[in-house]
Design goal:
There is one protein chain. The protein has 493 residues and is α/β, with parallel strands linked by helices. The protein has a seven-stranded mixed β-sheet with strand order 14-15-16-13-12-17-18, with helices on both faces. Strands 9-8-7-10-11 form a five-stranded parallel β-sheet, with helices on both faces. It has a three-stranded antiparallel β-sheet with strand order 5-6-19, with no helix packed on it. Helix 15 links the parallel strand 17 and strand 18. Helix 3 packs antiparallel against helix 6. The longest helix has 23 residues. The radius of gyration is 24 Å and the shape is globular. 52% of the residues are buried. The chain binds nicotinamide-adenine-dinucleotide (NAD). The site of nicotinamide-adenine-dinucleotide has 32 residues, from helix 8 and helix 9. Nicotinamide-adenine-dinucleotide (NAD) binds next to helix 8 and helix 9.
Length: 493
Amino acid sequence: MNGNPDLLIGGAWAHAADGGLREIVNPADGTVVATVDEATPDDARSAVAAARAAFDDGAWVATPVAERAALLVRIADLLERDKEELAHLETVDTGKTLVESRIDIDDVISVFRYYASLVVGQADRLIDVGDPAVLSRVVREPIGVCVLIAPWNYPLLQMSWKVAPALAAGCTMVVKPSEVTPLSTIAFARSAQEAGVPAGVLNLVQGSGAVLGAALTDTPDVDFISFTGGLATGKTIARVAAEHVTKVAVELGGKNPHIVFADADWASSVDQVLTGVFLHSGQVCSAGTRLIVEESIADDFVAELARRAELIRVGPGLDPASETGPLVSEAHRAKVEAYVELGISEGAKLVTGGVRPSDPALAAGSFFLPTIFDNCDRSMRIVREETFGPILTVERFSTEAEAIRLGNDTEYGLAAGVRTADPARGERMVRALRHGTVWLNDFGYYTAAAEWGGFKKSGNGRELGPTGLAEYQEIKHIWHNTAPKPAEWFKSV
Ligand code: NAD
């Protein structure tokens, strides 16, 4: 049996009902960094029941909004206090560098602070119905019991985009981190409890999505499912939820174009195309994996990218010298390697990378070198599918219209980048691209105050910003007649 229990159900920490455990592996060296409880479907059902009971009990829902906001601030303060420890957990769990993990935790903290301030500023909407005796108002109420499911690439960050607005809105919840990377979410749940989140309001189960999925989603006891992860899983959850008419938000994958015109600033374009795709070894939903570059500069631009890609220091995330870490697991590296083989067989030209690093010191980790394929086109699966690894594909264009057509020629629509020195063209491009976030002469940035989410198969909800709170709220119209009088109709009755 594991030492500390890792499941939080109804305010009590518990081991898995069947004593099941899972080893958590550091992808930088293959060592086991923790052993955590692996929930059973019965544990998941208990967690949903605890969240249901805590919601139906009414005490949390009735908590004044200022108190809920103060709780969010206390959570943010505790995360600030534990930032280094959380960043360390994120690095040994995902493989990303400590620099990246620290940025993630800073962003988590800012999300809690943002929703604390947003929710206290929300006001009811008063409607003048033309009768001074009638008070008509539209109010927001918590949507209810939420199931919050997160992926492994940004474990606590993605979870915080759900938990912070859910708490702010007055919902109760079951959180399920990815089974590959649960450590920071388990630590977070302890902080939430320390901050004073009432029993049953936040429940945590962790384990295989395939095993726990039905218990968490195929139930009339859940009012909202917010899921971030892959397209196939998102479709499964949406299908299951439809049976109960449960509201679902799915934040899915991306195959994001980064469009570079010949007049773009050269140095920042090279830098940001590289960081846009190779940060976190490409395991980023909004990674700019498709370079779409103007023909007249393409050869020189790709040559410079390749030269610089070969200088990127790949290594363990805990080593301050590393600029990017390993892939999250051996299994995931195998998928990325299969895409490289596929790209070669599809006729793309391998410019650099495509292999594991030769350094024997990295042999025990699931590292893979930054990889660039030139001469790519939309007939190739490596251009159409999310490889979720450090693979950049290069397509070329000659006209603005062609750049727009290529940029939109994807079933996804999460994010896109445009680089040009011509502001008018830039504005035309950002409006023409059908993606949820479009960066002009920048790449990868976001803020808690602006919505994040995808067009098309990248998803159907929005996180962050005011819409990210509205997802967790029901709208109610209250019509209060302070001076009731006989109705106009049925006078003979
Ligand atoms: P995944 O779909 O394999 O798993 C995501 C989560 O769903 C995990 O917690 C998993 O255990 C759980 N799960 C799996 N099957 C389930 C089921 N049947 N029912 C309920 N839950 C289930 O995704 P992943 O490999 O962890 O993450 C990578 C994917 O996430 C990529 O496609 C990436 O683009 C996407 N992502 C999207 C965003 C965004 O903002 N749109 C952000 C980060 C990651």
